[in-house]
Write a structure and sequence with these properties.
The chain is mainly alpha-helical and 119 residues long. The protein has four helices and no strands. Keywords: Gibberellin signaling pathway, Signal.
Length: 119
Amino acid sequence: MATKLNLIVFSIVMLHLLMSVQMHPIHSKSPAPQPHPPQSQPHHNSSPNGTTEGSLQLQECGPRCGHRCSNTQYKKPCLFFCKKCCTKCLCVPPGTYGNKQVCPCYNNWKTKLGGPKCP
């Protein structure tokens, strides 16, 4: 019984590590372009792109997360956590990787171990 439990815990930890590596690869070519700061206080529908905190409506989370997770091998967990983060923050960063600084809530939500919660 304890062996099965250890195997399950080990599998969950490994999956989490694989997701972290997949969603945050190390690139040595050039730094990512820096986004422009929002020009006004974010509120519902204030940004046509839905990239500022609070600028999306709940029904927009699915399509935004579908695009955000389109390049990962781990679509199911990526979509799960992206939708969870979008529901809380009402924001999904642009692109399929990085750019989290445009949505502080999405960027600052961490796991118990200090890793990123949102893809």
